[in-house]
Amino acid sequence: MARKGNTRKQSENVDPKYQSRLVQNLVNNILRCGKKQIAYKIVYKALEIAENELNQDALEILEQAILKTTPSTVVKARRIRGSTLQAPRDVKPEVGQSLAIRWIISSAKARNNRGIAQKLANEFIDASKGQGGAVRKREEVHRIAESNRRTAF
User: Fold this and answer.
1) Is residue 61, in this structure, part of any structural domain at all?
2) What is the pLDDT of residues 60-113, one digit of tens each?
3) Which of 15, 30, 70, 145 would bridge with 24, disulfide CB 3.0–4.6 Å?
């Protein structure tokens, strides 16, 4: 923690093809064992597949998918008098966006298609339509947060 004033937020890079921070964050979450070029290929292929299927701009599809899976509240475990309660918390936009990216990737990995790029493309398409595993995860988190409103802290 900085002792003198606030620290500057490190500037994020943009990806070379789309010039987008959102795509760069997606690539960084796909990244395994430092193989960034493979992560770029996977993400670009998935965006290309989604673009061809929906006949829309790839960035628009991705932004819609992220927008429809970004949570506004999450639940956080809180111990009160020996029992653990799920307390709802509001989420900052950056944190919500990173949660949405992680949920999209994890639900894409759980699909049965062949190849991660195809799975990711199908998840982008479903999420942009308001369907899919990531959107279900968001709705589930919101439902739990709504039912536990009384334990807000």
Assistant:
1) yes
2) 999 999 999 999 999 999 888 888 888 999 999 999 999 999 999 999 999 998
3) 15
Q: Which residues contact 57 (CB under 8 A, 6 or more apart)?
A: 51
- Taken as a whole, the chain contains a residue count of 153
CATH number at residue 121: 1.10.455.10
Q: Could you list the residue range(s) of the whole structural domain that residue 33 is in?
A: 21-77+86-151
Structure tokens at 149: 């409103």
pLDDT the model gives residue 85: 86
Scan for tokens 């979450």, then name that residue: 29
**pTM greater than 0.85:** yes
**Contacting residues for 79 by C-beta, under 8 A, at least 6 apart:** 85
| Domains: count for the chain | 1
User: Distance (Å, rounded) from C-alpha 94 to C-alpha 132?
Assistant: 22
8 Å CB contact between 66 and 97: yes
Burial class (CB in 10 A: 0-12, 13-18, 19+), 83: exposed
